[in-house]
Design goal:
By secondary structure, the chain is of the alpha/beta class. 36% of the residues lie in helices and 21% in strands. β4, α5 and β5 form a beta-alpha-beta unit.
Length: 270
C-alpha cells in the first residue's frame, strides 16, 4: 500500500515498528506489563484449545504471552510492519503453528468469523486510536462468542490535563474536556493520528451503548511510577509498589488519576 493511501496511524506504526519495543524496555514498563497480565489472567479461558483475539497486537507482546500459556492466537493490527515484528517474535519462540496474522482496521473486522471468539484483548489503547471507537466496539462485538469477553485499555482523559496546562491554553483544555479528542504527538504532521480519551463514566456509557456490560474497571497506573522509574530497579521494589498499586486501582476515586483505564466486559444478553 502506498504512503498516500495509508492512514496516519498506519504510517506512524509502520515507521516505528522496528524500534517500537525499545521505547518500552525499562523497569517501569516491566512493572506496568506485569500488572496488565495480572489483571488479564482471571479472564483467560480455561480451555486451551480455544482461540484468543489480540486486537491491535503491535509487535506481539501479549500474543507471545498467550502462546506461551498454550492458547491459539489471532493477531490483528492495522500495520503490516507491526504484524511482521509480531510474526518474527512468535516464530522465534516456536509458536507460529497456532497463530494467525490478519492486517485489519478495528473498524472493519470482516476478515474474522462472526461469533467465534471467547476472548478478545485490545491492550495498548487501540480502540481509542480508531476513527470511531463506537464502530470498532460494534465490530468487536460481532466477532465475540455469546459468552465472550473483551479486555481492553483506554487513555484516561483526566490524565492529559497536565499537558494542556503546559500549553497554557485554557480554550484547548476546555474543548478537550468536552469531547476527549486529541492526537498522537509526533513531529511529522502526516503521522498525527486522532486519539479519543475517556473518563470512567464516559467509557462505561460507551461500552454499554455498544452492547457490553462492564465486569471490572481498573486504573493503570494510579501511582505515577513512570516519573519515578528509579524506585522500580529491583524485583523486590516492583513487588512492593505493585501491592500498593493494586490496593488503589479499583478505588473509583483513585482511578481518575490513572493514565489508562483497563476494562473487562461481557456481552449484554437479550
Amino acid at each position: 500500500m502506498s504512503r498516500s493511501k495509508r492512514s496516519a496511524v498506519q504510517r506512524y506504526h509502520d515507521r516505528v515498528s522496528g524500534c517500537y519495543d525499545d521505547s518500552y524496555d525499562d523497569a517501569y514498563w516491566q512493572w506496568h506489563n506485569s500488572l496488565t497480565w495480572d489483571y488479564l489472567k482471571p479472564y483467560l479461558p480455561r480451555d486451551l484449545s480455544v482461540g484468543v483475539l489480540d486486537l491491535g497486537c503491535g509487535t506481539g507482546t501479549w500474543a507471545c504471552k498467550l502462546r506461551k500459556s498454550g492458547y491459539a492466537v489471532t493477531c490483528v493490527d492495522i500495520s503490516t510492519k507491526m504484524l511482521d515484528q509480531a510474526r518474527l517474535k512468535i516464530e522465534r519462540m516456536g509458536g507460529s503453528d497456532r497463530t494467525r496474522f490478519v492486517q485489519a482496521d478495528l473498524c472493519d473486522l470482516s476478515a474474522l468469523p462472526a461469533g467465534g471468539a471467547p476472548l478478545a484483548i485490545a491492550l495498548g489503547d487501540p480502540v481509542g486510536c480508531t476513527r470511531s471507537p463506537a464502530l470498532a466496539l460494534k465490530q468487536i462485538r460481532r466477532v465475540l462468542a455469546d459468552d465472550g469477553l473483551l479486555v481492553a485499555t483506554f487513555d484516561n482523559r483526566l490524565a492529559a490535563i497536565d499537558h494542556y496546562l503546559t500549553l497554557g491554553d485554557p480554550q484547548s483544555l476546555a474543548r478537550f474536556l468536552r469531547d476527549g479528542q486529541t492526537n498522537w504527538l509526533t513531529k511529522d504532521a502526516d503521522e498525527r493520528f486522532p486519539i479519543t480519551t475517556f473518563g470512567p463514566d464516559d467509557l462505561r456509557a460507551l461500552l454499554e451503548t455498544a452492547g457490553f456490560e462492564v465486569v471490572e474497571m481498573v486504573g493503570k497506573t494510579v501511582l505515577p511510577m513512570r516519573h519515578h522509574r528509579h524506585l522500580l530497579e529491583t524485583s523486590e521494589a516492583r513487588r512492593t509498589w505493585a501491592k500498593i498499586e493494586k490496593s488503589l486501582c479499583r478505588n473509583p476515586f483513585a482511578i481518575g488519576r490513572a493514565s489508562h483505564l483497563q476494562v473487562a466486559c461481557r456481552l449484554i444478553r437479550g
